[in-house]
Amino acid sequence: MVRLFTPNLQQAELASHYYEIASALPLVCPHGHVDPRLFSDANYRFGNPAELLISPDHYVFRLLFSQGVPLERLGIPRQDGAPVETDPRKIWQLFADYYYLFRGTPTGFWLNTIFSDIFGIRERLSSKNAQAVYDGIEQRLNTPAFTPRRLFEHYKIEVLCTTDAASDPLVYHQAIRESGWQGRILPTFRPDAVVNLDNPGWKPQIEQLSRASGISIGNYASFIQALENRRDYFKHMGATATDHGATSAYTGQLPGSELEALFQRALKDHASSEDARLFTGHMIIEFARMSVEDGLVMQMHVGSMRNHNPALFQTFGVDKGADIPVATEFTHNLAPLLAKFGSDPRLTLILFTLDESTYSRELAPLAGHYPALRLGPPWWFNDSPNGMARYLNSVMETAGIYNTAGFNDDTRAFLSIPVRHEVWRRVCADWLAGLVLSGRVDRDEAEAMASDLAYGLAMKAYRL
Amino acid sequence: MVRLFTPNLQQAELASHYYEIASALPLVCPHGHVDPRLFSDANYRFGNPAELLISPDHYVFRLLFSQGVPLERLGIPRQDGAPVETDPRKIWQLFADYYYLFRGTPTGFWLNTIFSDIFGIRERLSSKNAQAVYDGIEQRLNTPAFTPRRLFEHYKIEVLCTTDAASDPLVYHQAIRESGWQGRILPTFRPDAVVNLDNPGWKPQIEQLSRASGISIGNYASFIQALENRRDYFKHMGATATDHGATSAYTGQLPGSELEALFQRALKDHASSEDARLFTGHMIIEFARMSVEDGLVMQMHVGSMRNHNPALFQTFGVDKGADIPVATEFTHNLAPLLAKFGSDPRLTLILFTLDESTYSRELAPLAGHYPALRLGPPWWFNDSPNGMARYLNSVMETAGIYNTAGFNDDTRAFLSIPVRHEVWRRVCADWLAGLVLSGRVDRDEAEAMASDLAYGLAMKAYRL
Amino acid sequence: MVRLFTPNLQQAELASHYYEIASALPLVCPHGHVDPRLFSDANYRFGNPAELLISPDHYVFRLLFSQGVPLERLGIPRQDGAPVETDPRKIWQLFADYYYLFRGTPTGFWLNTIFSDIFGIRERLSSKNAQAVYDGIEQRLNTPAFTPRRLFEHYKIEVLCTTDAASDPLVYHQAIRESGWQGRILPTFRPDAVVNLDNPGWKPQIEQLSRASGISIGNYASFIQALENRRDYFKHMGATATDHGATSAYTGQLPGSELEALFQRALKDHASSEDARLFTGHMIIEFARMSVEDGLVMQMHVGSMRNHNPALFQTFGVDKGADIPVATEFTHNLAPLLAKFGSDPRLTLILFTLDESTYSRELAPLAGHYPALRLGPPWWFNDSPNGMARYLNSVMETAGIYNTAGFNDDTRAFLSIPVRHEVWRRVCADWLAGLVLSGRVDRDEAEAMASDLAYGLAMKAYRL
Fold it and tell me: Which end of chain C is more exposed for a tag (fewer CB within 10 A), N or C?
């Protein structure tokens, strides 16, 4: 099997060896968006093929939209409740008609692999076989073994971390624990909604945070207390990490006086865009301070301009394939944070970018110096065979693999987890084979690296 | 023949197969700068070898200039009429003496191929054989078959679009039509000169536009009418597209009141640089509105700082190899335009960049979402084997090939058209072979993609 | 031997041929940081293995620091004189324990090659064999042939340029000359310390410059005279080049009146950050003017934010692995300098960047136009097999190899010079083999290019 290997017999053979080492290891999923509800009930069933594979996955439907297919025809619910397509077989047929759009894309590779490896379908999806494929998937979905918990075990997932709002009561995580099932599903603390003052729903979010923490938030100090309270709860529920999203990597500490005034403006709905920017930059440092104290690993995902298409956002809401990356700057922006905590052995800060020009220019040199920094794997649009190859070739010479955090699949599509890890492991195996054959690492080193990239680095970076 | 294929037997063999599919298809030239005059007269003859291949082509003479050869010695005319070299054999000898500069460059590849495939010259050009090569070319140029029309047919060019100013009367296009010759030569509407207020010749251009349209331009409304009038004429003459150049991708609608005031300042020669920037950004949206209404495909070529060398510009004028790219931003800059027309099925907007860092970061995600967007092929300095490979590897995973516009040669050097397409088709064939051999697309998919990349995508994107 | 060659038999065989051509040529080292003291005494001895290979080399110790190893434990001296580890065997053992961090990095490749090729050690360094390796190196260091001068001859170094402050009396260079030894060690004029007003030590530096030049510096005119005086001295001592470092590539001429006022503010310690930026930008043009007059080749190394980690800087000083690149802009920034001197045949300006996004976008187009410009080799973090491959693939199509300056090792680690050149020569050989096998250059052209890239281009660009 030469999937994703360089078409060169000698290299492919060696790559197969490293892939075998990697594929024998359990899957570690330290960052993603799978709904914990899937695992809270032993008998949870997936829906029909369309609602399983198409309508919840913006990686999939964005390409049909890009060719003029209205999201309504794909069954994406509208915010105003206006009718959308509900017949899953019609949606499926439309998807099959446009399946050629996925040629050469990672989403196409994942879908093909899910169809063949999970659903046992041998033919590539097409307009012609669409209904037969639908039948085949539906049939398999109805088999008793096809529950999230059984698949979790079947895939040998060692741990799967979800992403959860600061005020989330974590009821599904609680239910999983109480059910006695041994699968390790951990929450991740993601407080963006209570940090981003630009978010029109900020005030209601603060009220939720007050309720969730039992701390009435009337000033900055009580806001911090409430966050710390929630972090304690997340830790108690097994969390080992937090996650923070922002458009830019700006960090900067606000003086106490300005900070309180700004926070009060926000409570009165008078915060400006500039206030929001400064507050986010301040809070990133505050969260680093908390991480130093409570040991939660900190993740930063920066550089996406969310909801670029306002009409689409108004009609369908967030996460509809219209988040577009922007140029990102780390060297200046992270300096204040790193001056304070970058050399603190208690902090681990994992960075993600959508701007590949920062790999060799900023991120690898930063990670090759600061003890607190680790680089996350290629993210989102770059979570692809070429994206991974560029990452490995641009980052590893300067940072070394031991300043990276291994792989994470970052997916809400549970069934795609195995193939996403397979892609990473295969691309790494091929890269390692290339290093060996060009005399850059020894064979035993490559074996250790194959294992570290597939498993060890993620376990260590996320303190799992 | 392994030209431009990865040196791997298995891949080269498969690439040859895809290249055969591509090379059987006609050439589609939807964007370029060939002079329509070449085709207006059935007996048009090319000049001597130096005036055919050297003096009009800044891709060629810039490399000699970069090593200290004065442009005067290459016969480039001076604006002040001061004497320059006129002996084509002396110019040719100098070119041959410096021919080693082109080693490994796309221009070198094109020239080598033109010499061998078009002029039947077997030896590489050198100081020693310069005059003999000159003789060989001259001889061939004098053969009866060597007219633009015969070559157009011989190259199997299905359609060739020129680039023409808004006020251009299109007399050569008219002559071609009237001649009864069946070659399809279409104009493209390029209104930069009447849009760019920074251009010292803006006022005379406006007067020309008034004359050409028969509409006296005294305010913004009549300016728009004149443009729409010319677009109608271009459409009537077969145009299917417009083209717009700018230093940045900035777009933004000016409120009506400011707009008129600004336009009046411009008419009085009082417009500032900032006025010019805002006006260009406004007009881009206005042109998108016109395209929505009249169906002309819109092209944007952004990111070149023109005439970087002021002394050279003063002495020799525009297009002398001194246009230098700048970093380019699309995500923020195009947001106003895309919010208005990005999802409109009537618009096709084809984007070109010189900043490759935008491929994976901005352009592919934008094209993978907005129905109106298509990505143009690698442009100018990136129209090269490596530039194409980087483009295919960076863009296609996220946008898919069906959100791109295939290839265009963008050349004023008519004889280089076949080899430019050959390079694209070979690099695509090699890329497809790599995808197949690494299990990323099936063989039949690659065959369809080879055909689409060579022919179908360009025909469709440009509505030809 | 397939070290650093593409794992493809045909390509590796051809690459070997080009590498043989390159490896037969002497080493040219036109830019670096080797201490001239090494060559001033025929009997100079290197210290112990730790002080030879670890403590002076920030490429090495930064990776241990990045994993939490305090620099004190590696024997890096503190500015406050507090105790640090002094036992070289303990330092060596720690280094060996963390040697896995260098897997796949260029530093690891250099170290492995130094151990095997220079010290004859066959086993890879590990915790287990650390002391035995130490013994082996120590033994070799004690052999009579192991002096810098003998190694210089053994390595076939044709010329080695050091980097020296404007006020440096060049006593070691003087001593080398007077010793009658024939090795060619030349100084390079690096005036950053007297140009950068942000440097807290600027005033003392100016006093040193006054003393060194014998010109009392009380205004801008005398400052310029002092610099010209020192350049004369450097030229007299064999220098052929200057070097200039800055965070940005900004250039811009200050009007005489502002200039003098700014200089007087600086002398009174009242210069602002903005003054410093403007003054550096002005001086770059002034230095270009001097180069036009005295013929010294000008180098610019831009884009590093120095001393990013303030606590580390305070404790250990400069050059401790905490210099981090920033995004760099050349097209606008260099325009004023190039408008003045870019086409002057007397100037050679060699540019270095840490921002690879500028390779194809700005640097190659600039170098492909301006006669004065040459591009330096991949610098610092990009001086690596992948960094070189990216450079060759991104730069050469547009600039051609004849607008580049060949290779320089830029190292303070004398023993790493041969392997650094070997890496460059091998990567170039592999690249050339790829060009030949894909029909992009002929075999005889590749032979000439192999030689030029290894030797001729550097000799010519640096006027050696």
Answer: N
